[in-house]
Design goal:
Keywords: ATP-binding, Coiled coil, Cytoplasm, Cytoskeleton, Microtubule, Motor protein, Nucleotide-binding. One of its GO terms (cellular component) is microtubule. It comes from Odocoileus virginianus (White-tailed deer). It is built from twelve helices and 19 strands. It has two domains: about 80-160, no CATH class; about 165-405 and about 415-565, Kinesin motor domain (Kinesin), CATH 3.40.850. Strands 1, 5, 6, 7, 8, 9, 12, 15, 17, 18 and 19 form an eleven-stranded mixed beta sheet that branches. Strands 2-3-4 form a three-stranded antiparallel beta sheet, with helices on one face. By secondary structure, the chain is α+β, with helices and mostly antiparallel strands. The structure holds adenosine-5'-triphosphate (ATP). Adenosine-5'-triphosphate binds near residues 173, 271, 388, 475 and 476.
């Protein structure tokens, strides 16, 4: 340790200098460091500047893997974001869909529950409601039927008062033989080539256009029109009331008129009518009016014990303008049509001289006789119809009541007869009246001729009254050119057409109220004089073919029906039977 004063001063001086130097060195060092620091800062700034510039310059450069990667990353990132956004929006949608679905479902459940409630309520109420509706439908239908019946009844009453002839029209179906010579069918011929249509129950329309022919469009009105589908039963239903009228004492005539092959024999007798008509035990099939009428007559008789009528039948045909008795036997008891004459009784009625009458006690007996008569009826195949009837068939059923006041024959005595001068001069052959043959005959159902022809109603001197039911199957009108007939068949055709024209003339004269009615222009009209101009209830069934090739004859037949409807003959009166 330096001495005090001098020595110690120099130490401290030394020391201060030393420290000063050290301080100075430190200060220098600090300056150095600060400079170094400043330089470093400068460098850093420069480096940053370089880096920034580098970054700026690198951006537009493409194809550089790191920048592509960056872009891809960015795109991926963006996609991710979009996917996320989509996911979240679909989650939102799903959620709202679920909510809507739940709402809908609950609405549906509510609606089903309501419907079920309604349904149950309806089920509970338905039987009553259905019953009520059914009842009201029945009532309305019944009302409508009653109205229809009433309208018809009034029409018929009016027609009866005027003595009108009831005319029905039946259109048969188209049949295979219609096609054979069928002309080309026009466009407007609606129903399978047919040109005749049942518009309703009372109207028939003929509508036809043929090249080179004027257009046909005509309607006709009749009491009843049956279309091709109408059954035999339906047709018979309209005939039935006349049978009651007959049993009540009215004269009745049911007549089928129409062109050859139009369905007259089918309507009156049924199919296969050249054989025996169907027995009444089977009236359900195609049996025609005659077999059904036979069954119905005997049914009505059996139902009413107060009635004890006796029925006789006679069968004639008008062939080539001659009348043949189809129930007569020749001398050898062989059935053969015998020619007969029309006479006028003193009462001015028409009768067939010597006509064979056969009493019938059942429908079967009736139809056996009809079958026998039909076997003799003239037939001839033609180009139009293979089984064409060549004669007019007239089946007459005579009604008499059994009374104790009758003569031994059971038949009334004969009114005086006089030979009709206009009739054929061939003598009539009155058969012997045999009281014994009236009811029990041996062999069964022998034929019997009446000494005086009572072909029509004749008042009985004993007060006994007859009514007649005539069932007429007329021969068909035909055009010889179309039916292709020659020789004797041509004469038949000519006779048929002439007699039908005479029938039409008679109706025309009656309709016009002419003073002279030309009944005697043909045997047919002469035979039917009392029916046509008298007090019989006359029903004409006009049969027509629907085919285009028959349209001319169809118009003619419908015209005939229209003319018949115009006839007013005065009210038919019943004969007093009981
Ligand atoms: N409504 C119908 N339904 C079915 N077939 C029918 C009908 N009408 C007629 N026919 C058939 O038509 C054909 C001719 O009928 P039908 O013999 O009755 O004629 P028609 O008018 O009597 O002829 P013709 O005057 O030449 O004797 C027959 O084969 C018959 O069976």
């Amino acid at each position: 340790m330096p001495a005090r004063g001098g020595r110690w001063g120099s130490f401290w001086e030394l020391r201060a200098r030393q420290l000063q130097r050290q301080l100075q060195a430190k200060e220098e060092r600090i300056v150095e460091l600060e400079t170094e620091n400043a330089l470093l800062h400068l460098k850093l700034a420069e480096s940053r500047e370089v880096a920034a510039r580098g970054r700026r310059e690198e951006t537009p450069r493409r194809g550089h893997p790191s920048s592509a990667l960056t872009r891809l990353r960015r795109a991926a990132q963006k996609l991710k974001q979009e996917m996320e956004a989509l996911r979240s929006s679909s989650r939102g949608l799903l959620q709202s869909y679920r909510e809507e679905h739940r709402d809908c479902l609950s609405e549906i459940v509510r609606a089903v529950q309501t419907a079920q409630l309604h349904h149950e309520a309806l089920l509970a109420a338905w039987p009553a409601e259905a019953g009520r509706l059914e009842r009201s439908l029945r009532d309305v239908t019944e009302c409508w039927r009653q109205e229809q019946r009433e309208r018809r009844r009034l029409q018929e009453a009016l027609a009866e008062l005027k003595g009108d002839i009831r005319v029905l029209c039946r259109i048969r179906p188209l049949l295979p033989f219609d096609d054979k010579a069928q002309e080309p069918v026009s466009q407007n011929s609606s129903v399978s080539g047919g040109v005749v249509h049942a518009v309703d129950d009372e109207t028939v329309l003929v509508e036809c256009t043929r090249p080179g022919h004027p257009l046909i469009n005509k309607t006709y009105t009749f009491e009843r029109v049956y279309g091709p589908a109408a059954s035999q039963r339906v047709v018979f239903e309209d005939v039935c009331p006349l049978l009651t009228s007959f049993l009540d004492g009215y004269n009745v005539c049911i007549m089928a008129y129409g062109q050859t092959g139009s369905g007259k024999s089918f309507t009156m007798l049924g199919p296969h009518c050249q054989e025996e008509p169907a027995p009444p035990s089977e009236p359900c099939g195609d049996a025609g009016i005659i077999p059904r009428a036979a069954g119905e007559l005997f049914r009505l008789i059996s139902e009413d014990a107060s009635r004890s009528p006796e029925l006789d039948i006679s069968i004639v045909e008008v062939y080539n303008n001659d009348i043949f008795d189809l129930l007569a036997n020749d001398s050898g008891r062989v059935a053969s049509g015998v020619k007969r004459q029309v006479l006028t009784t003193q009462q001015g009625k028409k009768a067939v001289c010597g006509l064979t009458y056969q009493s019938v006690r059942s429908a079967a007996e009736f139809l056996t006789l009809v079958g026998r008569g039909l076997q003799l009826r003239a037939k001839q195949p033609t180009a139009v119809h293979a089984e064409s009837s060549r004669s007019h068939l007239v089946i007459t059923v005579t009604l008499a009541t059994a009374t104790s006041s009758r003569g031994p024959s059971g038949r009334p005595s004969a009114p005086a007869l006089q030979l009709d001068q206009s009739a054929s001069t061939e003598p009539c052959r009155p058969g012997p009246r045999s009281p014994a043959t009236r009811k029990r005959q041996s062999p069964p159902m022998p034929l019997r001729t009446r000494g005086h022809g009572l072909g029509q109603v004749a008042p009985d001197p004993l007060g006994q009254v007859h009514a007649t039911l005539q069932l007429v199957d007329l021969a068909g009108s035909e055009c010889a050119g179309v039916s292709g007939v020659t020789g004797p068949a041509l004469r038949e055709t000519s006779c048929i057409n002439r007699s039908l024209a005479a029938l039409s003339d008679v109706l025309g004269a009656l309709a016009e109220g002419r003073g002279h009615i030309p009944y005697r222009n043909s045997r047919l009209t002469h035979l039917l004089q009392d029916v046509l101009g008298g007090d019989a209830k006359l029903q004409v069934i006009v049969c027509v073919s629907p085919g285009q090739r028959h349209v001319a004859e169809t118009l003619q037949s419908l015209g005939f029906g229209a003319r018949a409807r115009q006839v007013e003959r005065g009210r038919p009166a019943p004969r007093k039977l009981r």
